[in-house]
């Protein structure tokens, strides 16, 4: 029985622009961020960015396969552009204040992990976060804290 292998017909390293009849889409590769190979799609005429898992809204983002500091840099870059609307990988449609909130979250969990560096078995609680993050959904808070702890102690 023949099995089709799903391999790409086209690949790119940094950016690729696709041109349609009514608009274009700019695809950008990020070598570090949420993971080590994220891609975002931007519609410049509409000022909409499809961010995928580079952006979670009102949820604890998963950062354990990427570089949190690079993710912050990517998101800060978005804030400094003309993008008006963001389609996240998880959560509702977003705008710049939502992106700024995720930046604050990632910075805060990095600081929280560093505050317990050297402890044998630190316990991390959502209650240690700023109130704006305590009600967020998702399983990733403890995973993120374990990742940051191992990364900083490794």
Offer a concise description of the structure.
Helices cover 32% and strands 21% of the residues.
Strand order of the largest sheet: 1-2-3-4-5
What kind of sheet is the major sheet? 5 strands, mixed
The separation of the N and C termini measures 46 Å
* Secondary-structure element order, N to C: EEEEHEHHH
Q: Can you tell me the number of structural domains?
A: 1
Provide the CATH architecture.
Answer: 4-Layer Sandwich
Detail the poorly predicted runs: none
Tally the helices.
4
- CATH homologous superfamily placement: Ribonuclease Z/Hydroxyacylglutathione hydrolase-like
Question: Could you tell me the number of beta strands?
Answer: 5
Please tell me about this protein's structure.
The model has no long low-confidence stretch (mean pLDDT 92). The protein has helices at 68-79, 96-115, 131-134, 140-153; strands at residues 15-19, 24-30, 38-43, 48-56, 85-90. 23% of the residues are buried. A hairpin with a 7-residue loop joins strand 2 (24-30) and strand 3 (38-43). By secondary structure, the chain is of the alpha+beta class. Helix 2 (96-115) packs across helix 4. The protein contains four helices and five strands. Strands 1-2-3-4-5 form a five-stranded mixed sheet, covered by helices on one side. The chain has one domain: Ribonuclease Z/Hydroxyacylglutathione hydrolase-like (Metallo-beta-lactamase, Chain A), CATH 3.60.15.10. The longest helix is centred in the C-terminal third of the chain and has 20 residues, at 96-115. The chain is globular, with a radius of gyration of 18 Å.
């Amino acid at each position: 029985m023949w099995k089709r292998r799903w391999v790409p017909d086209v690949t790119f390293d940094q950016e690729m622009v696709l041109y349609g009849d009514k608009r274009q889409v700019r695809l950008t590769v990020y070598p570090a961020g949420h993971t080590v190979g994220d891609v975002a799609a931007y519609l410049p005429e509409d000022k909409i960015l499809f961010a995928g898992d580079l952006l979670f809204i009102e949820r604890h983002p998963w950062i354990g396969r990427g570089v949190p500091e690079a993710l912050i840099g990517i998101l800060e870059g978005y804030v400094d552009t003309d993008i008006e609307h963001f389609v996240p990988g998880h959560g509702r449609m977003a705008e710049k204040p939502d992106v700024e909130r995720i930046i604050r979250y990632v910075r805060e969990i990095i600081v929280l992990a560093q505050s317990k560096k050297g402890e044998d078995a630190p316990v991390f609680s959502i209650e240690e976060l700023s109130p704006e993050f305590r009600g967020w959904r998702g399983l990733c808070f403890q995973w993120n804290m374990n990742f940051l702890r191992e990364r900083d102690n490794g």
